[in-house]
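Holo prediction. Input below; ligand is iron/sulfur cluster.
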Amino acid sequence: MHELAKKTDLCVQCGLCLPHCPTYAKTQNENESPRGRLALIQAWANKDLPNSEKLQSHIDNCLLCRSCEKVCPTQVPYGEIVDDFRNAIYSKKPSSLNLTLLKQIVHHKKINHAAQALLKRYQSSVLQNTARLFKLPQLLKLDKIERLISNKKNSNHYLIAQDFYPAVAEVKGDVGLFSGCMGALFDQETIHSAIRLLNIAGFNVHHPNSQTCCGALDLHSGDKKTATHLEHINLQAFANHDWTAIISIASGCGSQLQDYKNKKIANKTIDISQFLINQKLASMSFTPLDSSVILHTPCSLKNSMQQEQGALNLVKQIPDIKIKSISSNIHCCGSAGSYMLQHPKMAESLADDLINQVIADNETPEYLLTSNIGCALHISARCRERHIELEVIHPVTLLARQLTK
Ligand code: SF4
Ligand code: SF4
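Structure of the complex:
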């Protein structure tokens, strides 16, 4: 409590973070702002404010997008403070069915594999349409997770079963690939594309089967014990090798790996786009694409990893492509790990702000590119709900589709 109070003391209450906070922008309530939340946590840590549902809800409503942290002049470690607070008040009270199911899938490899098989069947038959027609997901209270499942089956027919993929050009080095539990479940095309591009760039790719969830979901919901356990499993999988880099294909996971206490992993973790663009890509050529794409930068890539230029520079390699960016006054998309399951109204409203801007000029682009699977699933689901045709994919997926060899 004393440590937590000390960290909150760093806030000088200047308010510079306020215009960058999505929940403050939506509510205009100081308790829903970074400065307000810090004051609440400080009062609780100093025993001036009792723990209550109301206090917890103000902190729970935070997306942990860390936009506030990025602009803070006194470098208040906002994300760390919220994680510590949630851990201190963490109780094993049952979470929603959607979140419980998600945690089972991300924590247990066998359940994840079973879910992958089930998902393929669900998408490749009339099952999904029938289930939606009869509102089965709502009746089973699984609608918040079911809405994330696309009705296209093509992103999951890639087989990623090996733990080693050799370079197909002159070997420049070895890298470890952290694919993330949600990517394995929902977007195997991105994993396949990343391996293909890295192999062509001259890198042997190690994809350890023993890797597990990065732990972000647990850490941000207050369960530091489980997060530390998962971190330990990933250390076993990645830390004892002399690999050039650990490549992340989901910035939500990448930012978590960079926050690991073990510096062997933290310092070597890099976003796939940033890594590829650093390699100059001389061994690759791409077929032109006469389409417009909109580039979405996830908060975790921008505010935590601070590697947002990589994706833009990578996509620019495709001849003729027209790239638009999302304006800086659009905040977080609302996915934020499990936030979209627990705060659906705020999550939908934030996604709508983003989508409204994408379609504002009457010329909806063909693709929205984003480097985080959580953002991709949420934006894509919201587009389907609004009957907007927009394919949401990872930048490396588009690049791999345009490879000429
Ligand atoms: S910008 Fe930093 S110091 Fe200023 S109010 Fe926000 S958290 Fe506090
Ligand atoms: S992390 Fe994001 S949502 Fe939370 S207080 Fe900071 S800016 Fe607001």
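The pocket of iron/sulfur cluster (ligand 2) is lined by residues 20-23, 34, 37, 62-68, 78 (CB under 6 Å). That is the main takeaway for now.
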